Amino acid sequence: MIKLERRAAPSSMGLVLIPVIAVFLALITGAIFLYLNGLSSPKGITWGQVFAVYGGMLDGAFGSTYGVSETIVKAIPLMLCGLGVSMAFRMQLWNIGAEGQFYMGAFGASWLALTYPELPVYLMLPGMVLLGLLCGGLWALIPGIPRAYLGVNETITTLMLNYVAILWVNYFIFGPWKDPQGMNFPLSKPFEPSAVLPTLGSSRVHFGLVFALAIAVLLWFVLKQSRWGYEVTVIGESPRTARYAGMNIKKNIILVMFVSGAIAGLAGMAEVSAITQRMQQGLSPGYGYTAIIVAWLAKLNPFAIILVAILLGALQVGGYSVQTTGVPAAIVFMIQGALLFFVLGGEFFNRFRIVLKNQGKVEV
Amino acid sequence: MTQEFLITILATAITAGTPILFAALGELLTERSGILNLGVEGMMLVGAVSGFIFAVKTNDPWLGVLAALVGGGLMALIHAFLTVTLQANQVVTGLALTLFGTGLSGFLGKPYIGVPIENAFKPVNLGILSDIPFIGPVFFQHDQLVYLSYIVVPVLWFLIYRTRLGLNLRAVGENPASADSLGVSVYKVRYFYVTLGGMLAGLGGAYLSLAYAPTWLENMTAGRGWIAVALVIFATWNPLRAMLGSYIFGGIDAFGFRAQAMGIAIPSFFLKMLPYIFTILVLIMVTRKAMANRVGSPGALGVPYDREER
């Protein structure tokens, strides 16, 4: 008879093996859908063509200097948003509003760049960073404060605010901020050069990468070394213990939500300043949502988040590059969702071992 | 405000509220069994797209509804397997389901964007009922799916509060260990209601693509799945209150659409924010009240059940 036995400690092999297997299985799932979808099209499809799509994705993401730099460009907002949500997740705060916090950060930064275009660069860029952090952080406090004081479910409120933030930004780019020379497209005027973050050489890889790496190191340090980091971890693992130890849970919820939103806001600032260099519709193709997968896949470890963000950035760039061959870009979100399923399912095997009763133990 | 205008607003509130109602009923059953499924948005989208594709291909909207039930149900089965059998984190699994459903529906629906549907659900006159002044045009000049929802709501209420099955369902959601010791299979009950919940969410999605819109657009649910999750809390897990809540949301939606026609000079972007802001406000108020009255969610909501740990 097959029986499950709880492991005393997670298997260390599993910690590495499960994400790798999950990535593999998610890609297979994507392939099956590509194949089935191809079969129903009038042209039909062969498995060879399915693998050619993956080949094309890989080539698009890593096959050229341009591909690699684009992968990093996509990974930067994923790193920052992923670091942001990981902070909240660590405390069991399900902030899924990184998308809205990203937009509000971009909004704050754009406001400065468009309202005071004459500011010198040494005031402009720091000001934009500050406003990006502040707007993202404050936006996260709107659900954070009711969560702290009344226990209002933050999952729903953070998500609702994503829609509000996007509508808010759209109001400005369709209205007061609309570029008179923009051919009626929903765009703001382009920023002055003083409001554009520096890039690496002639590539589009920008200073946001430095923000992301610095914040990863900072978060790691805070979580491992500081008293506050310790409090956050304890509250996340056992609120009751935290309360007995006299930790101020309400204050920490508010603080963590603010920090979480601020980092996502910084991602929005970097994107609008370095990539689009103006506020425009559809600034994020769902970075805030993909960031949830990044954070979970990385087991909330700041350095792992950097690596996973690059992996999922590559998936996005690859997805865009095969779009020309008629594969919908939505396949990327599908593979990402499947990836999260397999990681979640795989965690089971970290917690349990399968035992055949009355026989020797079989490790899985 | 003329009576005619009031009728239009109320009738639109019902059609706009119906997709949210189906989804909220589904989530209500799911949560009653102790499982939180935040994948409603994803299941609705899969329901909307599969319903639309089948209705276009077969030219029969009822086959579309069937496909939506299957699509939503299959999505929910993923959730059930991960959270009931593998005891995965229910919040994150639900999020994964929404992300997966968004991608899957976009992927499957790509060739159908802008495709016209010839045989969508249309209002059906119910004879004498539809002729009652005021009541008739508000409640009884809709399509068959709205009438179906009028039946589903009381049936579910009866099921939950007045039958043995409903007692088992509530027991599993409140205290699975004691339900188990009384011989109720916690796993079976949870699988059943999670799947049924997904089917209802799929039906809600199909209502959008086959009756309300009727068309397929990427992400056409626009957060309605999340509003449905919030509504379940507002409804205190009671189908009748879920119905009331859905129509209130539908009314706000309808108001946003028609406010400009009424000459209210608010930019449409702000009117479109109303349902989301209202959801947040309702959630805050409901949570305060729940704290005062100590009525809460099903006792075991969100907690995986492990037989070995009884």
UniProtKB/TrEMBL annotation, chain A:
<feature type="transmembrane region" description="Helical">
    <location>
        <begin position="205"/>
        <end position="223"/>
    </location>
</feature>
<keyword id="KW-1133">Transmembrane helix</keyword>
<dbReference type="GO" id="GO:0005886">
    <property type="term" value="C:plasma membrane"/>
</dbReference>
<feature type="transmembrane region" description="Helical">
    <location>
        <begin position="253"/>
        <end position="275"/>
    </location>
</feature>
<feature type="transmembrane region" description="Helical">
    <location>
        <begin position="72"/>
        <end position="89"/>
    </location>
</feature>
<feature type="transmembrane region" description="Helical">
    <location>
        <begin position="327"/>
        <end position="349"/>
    </location>
</feature>
<feature type="transmembrane region" description="Helical">
    <location>
        <begin position="12"/>
        <end position="36"/>
    </location>
</feature>
<keyword id="KW-0472">Membrane</keyword>
<dbReference type="GO" id="GO:0022857">
    <property type="term" value="F:transmembrane transporter activity"/>
</dbReference>
<keyword id="KW-1003">Cell membrane</keyword>
<dbReference type="Pfam" id="PF02653">
    <property type="entry name" value="BPD_transp_2"/>
</dbReference>
<dbReference type="InterPro" id="IPR001851">
    <property type="entry name" value="ABC_transp_permease"/>
</dbReference>
<keyword id="KW-0812">Transmembrane</keyword>
<feature type="transmembrane region" description="Helical">
    <location>
        <begin position="154"/>
        <end position="174"/>
    </location>
</feature>
<protein>
    <submittedName>
        <fullName>Nucleoside ABC transporter membrane protein</fullName>
    </submittedName>
</protein>
<feature type="transmembrane region" description="Helical">
    <location>
        <begin position="123"/>
        <end position="142"/>
    </location>
</feature>
<feature type="transmembrane region" description="Helical">
    <location>
        <begin position="287"/>
        <end position="315"/>
    </location>
</feature>
From TrEMBL, chain B:
<feature type="transmembrane region" description="Helical">
    <location>
        <begin position="6"/>
        <end position="26"/>
    </location>
</feature>
<dbReference type="Pfam" id="PF02653">
    <property type="entry name" value="BPD_transp_2"/>
</dbReference>
<keyword id="KW-1133">Transmembrane helix</keyword>
<protein>
    <submittedName>
        <fullName>Nucleoside ABC transporter membrane protein</fullName>
    </submittedName>
</protein>
<keyword id="KW-0812">Transmembrane</keyword>
<dbReference type="InterPro" id="IPR001851">
    <property type="entry name" value="ABC_transp_permease"/>
</dbReference>
<dbReference type="InterPro" id="IPR037294">
    <property type="entry name" value="ABC_BtuC-like"/>
</dbReference>
<feature type="transmembrane region" description="Helical">
    <location>
        <begin position="225"/>
        <end position="249"/>
    </location>
</feature>
<keyword id="KW-1003">Cell membrane</keyword>
<dbReference type="GO" id="GO:0005886">
    <property type="term" value="C:plasma membrane"/>
</dbReference>
<feature type="transmembrane region" description="Helical">
    <location>
        <begin position="38"/>
        <end position="56"/>
    </location>
</feature>
<feature type="transmembrane region" description="Helical">
    <location>
        <begin position="145"/>
        <end position="161"/>
    </location>
</feature>
<feature type="transmembrane region" description="Helical">
    <location>
        <begin position="191"/>
        <end position="213"/>
    </location>
</feature>
<feature type="transmembrane region" description="Helical">
    <location>
        <begin position="91"/>
        <end position="108"/>
    </location>
</feature>
<feature type="transmembrane region" description="Helical">
    <location>
        <begin position="261"/>
        <end position="286"/>
    </location>
</feature>
<feature type="transmembrane region" description="Helical">
    <location>
        <begin position="62"/>
        <end position="84"/>
    </location>
</feature>
<dbReference type="GO" id="GO:0022857">
    <property type="term" value="F:transmembrane transporter activity"/>
</dbReference>
<keyword id="KW-0472">Membrane</keyword>
